[in-house]
Amino acid sequence: MTNFHLLARRNLLLGEGTPLFYEKPVHIVRGEGVMLYDAEGRQYVDMYNNVPCVGHTHPRVVQAMTDQAGTLNVHSRYLHEGILDYAERLLLLHDDSLTCAVFACSGTEANEVALCMAREATGGRGIICTDSAYHGNSAEVGKLTRQDRPDRADPEIRSIPFPQCYRPMGDGLSGLELTELYLAEVTAQIEDFAAKDIPFAGMLVCPLLANEGLPGIPEEFMARAANVVRAAGGLFITDEVQSGFCRTGSWWGYEVMGFVPDIVSMGKPMGNGLPLAGVVAGKELVDNYRKQTGYFNTFASSPLQAAVGMAVLEVIESEGLRENAADVGGYMRRELKQLQAECEPMGDVRGYGLFIGLEWVSDRETRTSDREGAVRIANQLKDKGFLISNAGALGNVLKIRPPLVFQRTHADSFLTAFAETVRGL
Amino acid sequence: MTNFHLLARRNLLLGEGTPLFYEKPVHIVRGEGVMLYDAEGRQYVDMYNNVPCVGHTHPRVVQAMTDQAGTLNVHSRYLHEGILDYAERLLLLHDDSLTCAVFACSGTEANEVALCMAREATGGRGIICTDSAYHGNSAEVGKLTRQDRPDRADPEIRSIPFPQCYRPMGDGLSGLELTELYLAEVTAQIEDFAAKDIPFAGMLVCPLLANEGLPGIPEEFMARAANVVRAAGGLFITDEVQSGFCRTGSWWGYEVMGFVPDIVSMGKPMGNGLPLAGVVAGKELVDNYRKQTGYFNTFASSPLQAAVGMAVLEVIESEGLRENAADVGGYMRRELKQLQAECEPMGDVRGYGLFIGLEWVSDRETRTSDREGAVRIANQLKDKGFLISNAGALGNVLKIRPPLVFQRTHADSFLTAFAETVRGL
Question: What are the start-end ranges of the E strands in A131-172?
Fold first, then answer.
């Protein structure tokens, strides 16, 4: 079946406009490691998918899934050791203050739990996020997304301009002055909640501001924002759906930012493609959440989730993928920065570990965003066999986020193709 | 590890009060068909779990999962035939008017999609449910749950007393008179929305009112309620998370009720334990939903969901499980009704196919509910090796809902144990 026919069938069965990547979408039929293959046998280096973090179709993960699915997979209203072993191992990877876990099936569900936990603990309702965030697709979590849609406005949700160094608020400010300016935005929202008698519950952000475009975050912003939030009686939640599980070369985004949040939500890479997500927090917070809500999730905390989640942690550790992300990611960024010298549209090269953002601009002096240019590059690289995409608040940031098994050899072949592409502009 | 230690560890790692079944919880380690086994090798006939609808650890489902997880599992922004084949097959099992599908990871997520779809299509906000419903655990869907919690009151959500024949509103009414009385409750809520300038979006119910206690539903109520809702510009949504996939001996609960809803949500049995859920509706509704929301769900519409969901449909059809549910369920109900003659607390024997509710009462004349009695029976049957539970608006309905592979021999051994238990009261 041709892609034309597949697309027509898809529009019929799943609805017009079901999201797809690339101007000419690809028809992927097989994956292995960092490689994806289309129906005609064409090979692509996957440089975008962070869900299959230990690589597509990793045999150890598939085996764990097969073994558990063939032994037992049932809901969590019976005792089962697997989920306890998994929770324990996961919690040991977190800060000592985060001692208790709640599991769910998607990042959206995890953020639902996190928001509710913060609200139940504080008795508050008001939540602060950033103005270009995405944290999930449910009605409640969706309120945190893209505050530029006024029809979604909700008095309980406030956003601040996302803190960044590339197009900062406040002309001529830098370093800690800039941090102060963004912190003042947090304080202003807290004060406005108080003025409107909306009790404050907390703040929820991706610690890397991934959807905002993975910007350079003003020094100490996250740690100090957490203090501001706590001083006002709120809780600080980090959404580690993108930043977690060694993506940055550290286990968690909050480590990169040098602070510890009160509540952490996790998702995407957690099950290497099996729907698995969760929240960790201090025991008092979780106990109170359990007590207030009686939370139960049919498919979550299952033996299957536990076995697969555990296999993912084991592979990350046994294959040294945290170290690999730091090493190969650092190499990529250094090489890309060299290329930047001769490539005007590469306004900024940013990121942490195997999570890299390239700010695409039409003018490096004025830092004018060039979304169309970024889209064109992503499509050209796809035709050369490298899958990346564009993202960010202005849609002009090339987002590079391969499975953690991405090697220097893959980086080299990408860098060659990328250099060819930008030189051919 | 003893159950005492497992429970202590669970309270530490997952939080105090994480829900468990039975006064002395069971530690299940293995499943096969309708059987579950605890850590000491004790066998239980599973008569409660509708998620493993084709049986625990069904080899064909496990094989489909293994094969697909070992080939490709990636999000839905690439073209893939598997999800189209699955959507097509699933849609062919529905009424001809339901032509388009949206996939998700849990029943909660499916009901989030369904509510949003109805609201986007009608421009309305007001939703009617019943006063003892459960449709999921997110903030928005959670508003439909247990309207007796005034702290959850939301002007956009209204409930009606759930329609039933056993403890009906209106003394001495029966048949269509009773139906009219409950329909008047729907109309009253629609009129109250109008009076308060809340535009009406529709009604969401389980077509069997499963959580309400699987009551005898007054004749034609569902079909006529759908007409009332549509006449007021709303859409009628059935939540088939419990009633779908041949549980009743029909494919869908709406067939049992003799009508066709506008939007259908599905979950639990859909993936036999893999997180898989979805919504079907007419194409215009889905197209509009896609256009308004750009809905994307990282783990949904995946090749893995498609392969496993397809295997479940194939097994249901090839093993004749719809016919089995009708046959064995009918047999069980007939036998239980015979036992009812000599068992005072069995106030009512109800249900459809392999979904049976036993109303437990302290006095059959006054129909006084006996929740404690129902809990005791469930615990005693557990000790005899049969897993059921209590549910319903008053918590006094014994809920029997085994995997669809439940056979007459299983029914016979249950009936013997059940008769022994009730005679020993």
Answer: 157-160
CA count, 13 A, side-chain hemisphere, B409 = 3
- Asked if the Cβ–Cβ distance from B70 to A87 is below 8 Å, we say no
Is it true that domain B3-54+320-423 has CATH number 3.90.1150.10?
A: yes
User: Do A71 and B57 count as a contact with CB atoms less than 8 A apart?
Assistant: yes
Give pLDDT tens digits for A34-55: 999 999 999 999 999 999 999 9
Distance of CA B325 to the CA centre of its chain: 15
pLDDT digits 0-9 by tens, B383-394? 999 999 999 999
Q: Quick check: A190 and A232 in contact, CB under 8 A?
A: yes
DSSP B381-418: HHHTTEE-EEESTTS-EEEE---TT--HHHHHHHHHHH
* Closest C-alpha to B222, from B191, B267, B192, B252: B252
Residue with tokens 């019976």: A78
For residue B99, list chain A residues with Cβ-Cβ distance below 8 A: 12
| CA closest to A284 among chain B residues | B15
CB contact under 8 A, A3 and B79: yes
Cβ atoms of B252 and B243 within 8 Å: the answer is yes
ipTM of the complex: 0.97
The reply to whether residue A27 touches residue B140, judged by beta carbons under 8 angstroms, is no
Which of chain B's residues have a Cβ under 8 Å away from the Cβ of A300?
A: 106, 275
For B297, the closest chain A residue by CA position comes to A137
pLDDT for the residue numbered B172: 83
Residue A70 token pair: 């063939």
Answer whether A301 sits within 8 Å of B14, measured CB to CB.
yes
Q: Tell me the C-alpha distance between B265 and B320, whole Å.
A: 24
The one-letter amino acid code at B424 reads: G
Over residues A307-361, the pLDDT tens digits come to: 999 999 999 999 999 999 999 999 999 999 999 999 999 999 999 999 999 999 9
Mutating which of A11, A16, A18, A34 best tests the B interface, going by the most B Cβ atoms within 10 A? Answer: A18
Residues B371 and B358: their CA atoms lie apart, in Å, by 11
Contact A294 B51 (CB under 8 A): no
**Six token digits for residue B136:** 């999921």
Please state, in angstroms and rounded to a whole number, the distance separating the CA atoms of residues A351 and A330.
9
Instruction: For chain A, give every domain's residue range.
Output: 3-54+320-423, 60-318
When CB atoms are compared, the residue of B51, B290, B298 closest to A18 is B290
The confidence score (pLDDT) of residue A151 equals 66
How many angstroms away from the CA of A132 is the closest CA of chain B? 16
Considering CB atoms only, which of A15, A84, A268 is closest to B102?
Answer: A15
Local structure of residue B79 (DSSP, 8 states): B
Characterize A181-213 residue by residue with b for buried, 16 or more Cβ atoms within 10 angstroms of its Cβ, and e for exposed: bbbebbbebbeebeeeebebbbbbbbbbbbbbb
Q: What is the mean pLDDT of residues B335-355?
A: 96
- Residue A152 is predicted with a pLDDT of 67
Q: Which of A34, A73, A211 to mutate to test the interface with B (most CBs of B within 10 A)?
A: A73
Q: Residues B12, B18, B22, B23: is their CA dihedral positive or negative?
A: positive
- What local confidence, expressed as pLDDT, does residue B148 receive? 64
Query: What is the pLDDT, as a whole number, of residue A378?
Result: 97
Contacts of A105 in chain B (CB under 8 A): 105-106, 109, 275, 299
pLDDT value at residue A153:
80
CATH of domain A60-318: 3.40.640.10
Cβ-based contacts of A75 with chain B (< 8 Å): 49, 51
Reply yes or no on whether the pLDDT at B327 is more than 80: yes
pLDDT value at residue B425: 79
CA distance B30 to chain A (A): 5
Contact A140 B138 (CB under 8 A): yes
What mean pLDDT, rounded, does chain B reach?
96
**pTM of the full structure:** 0.98
Q: In the structure, how many helices (H) and strands (E) does chain A have?
A: 13, 16
Instruction: Give the closest of A77, A88, A289 to B21, CB-based.
Output: A77
